[in-house]
Amino acid sequence: MSFLDDIFARLEEVADETVLLELHDQEAGEANWGLMGRGLLRQIAQARRFLATQNLNKGSRVALLAPNSVDWAAIDLALMAEGLIVVPLYARQAPAELVAMMKDCSPRLIVCGDAGLRDGIKQNWPEAPPQVLFEEVFGTREDGPQPDLVSDARQRVGDSMNGSDPVTIIYTSGTSGEAKGVILTAENVAHMLSCTSARLDSLMDKRSGPDQVFHYLPFCFAGSWIMLLTCLLRGSQLTLNTDLTKLAADMRRASPNYFLNVPQLLERMRKAVDEQLWKTGGLILGIYSRAKNAWMRKQEGKANFGDAMWLGLAKALVFPAIRRKMIGGNLKALICGSAPLNVETQLFFMMLGIPVLQVYGLTETTAICTMDDPKHVDAGRVGPAISGIEMKLCENDEIIVRGPNIFPGYWNRPEETAKVLRHGWFHTGDQGEVNAFGNWRIIGRIKNLVILSSGHNVAPEPIEDDLLRHLAGAQQVVLIGNGRGYLSAILTGDLSAAVVQAAIDAVNPGLPHYKQIRAFHIHAEPFSIENGLLTANGKLKRDLIASRLSQEIEDLYRVKQAV
Q1: pTM > 0.70: yes or no
Q2: Is 173 a residue whose pLDDT tops 80?
């Protein structure tokens, strides 16, 4: 039995329960659209029938280019059931970048969510393989009981999927170079789904019905895709946001038990609460501010007389209202991955009574290496290693991993594969540390290390995060200084030199001399996916930023600003 057989069996069990639901703008007259278990099996069967007409052989690559939708999930499952290798692509990425990835993996077919995406590919790749739209795959929607279609969805899965068979190629974000295609096998995915489902069982102890899960992150990213498959395997109701401008409202409409996040959203939510309460003012702000200070003193072991009273008042009068307005009344936890979360933000949500469970991993590890235990959260850390895998530190405190979640290699890149898979261990490129309880903390990326001319190695991420905490108007901070005598910072956002200087003056005293920031440059335009300085999942392209701003950087070291 493959993981796909297990998902199809669960969909039959929840045949009359909603498993996928798209939220649309009801004020604009758009209806929400969802499918029960039976309906999703029907969609998968229709997609399989279409694919059977396309002259595709087992192992053929098929690119899937579309934003999240119920149809995306159905086509993804149908492709895997047919023994095809899915290559999911990010719909917001530049067409030229998408074409480069597709040329690398040579798909036999490109399935596009709409005509605009298809036309973008055609313009940048006239010789592209056939492109079809979702509407062509599904044709006329089948209504009413269709038992033959339900059984068709499951046919021949066992013959088309073995443990070592590749099921997907997911392209990495490419922070320091060309994106690489990560091959993931049926065995990789099956192991990961057993781990994620077990951890969610622990979170949802003694649940009385299906999990209610909200989702907004693109399915083309490994962690997001694993969440989709996990929800289908568990028979959960997964509610999809289809418009990021309505994210806050959709979260409240979904009223989920949990959902997957990136740190950026949680940081925004935290700031929004503070700003709203400052506008409200009055007694509520007074209680909130005193309780917040009391909470932080408690975490530092410096509680004052009276702190318990302010926290008690806030828990009774303020925090429940914040939780309801922010996310609804059913939330058990927020799940956060993709990058380390600011510990103050994690503690903020814990103060409100909302656990934040961190997850750490890479695409090459089938998205996950560690997951917080819901019953033993260690703030600032990303939890223990998941079941069945080993993690340890090697040179430069680099984290290395081995186990059934490790990918077999990069598509058509044996040399790149050999660099990271050595003696049975995957070299993550991440620096970390682990405490006596087995809980890991991520310090930074090895390749991001700034090596000063003095020989000192500096992990930039902790200093960047600290500076951001002191700059409410900042969007990004990038530390530079490779081969130089001191560190400088590039900042984006609505900032003045005086405000930046004050933040640096607050951060520097707590750092050794070689980690102190001696100069800075404010860059007017934020780094973004559109200007090519962020990856598809929002990570800084540090090398490209340094290249693009080379003159500004030279000026920092030609005439040092006083700090």
Answers
A1: yes
A2: no
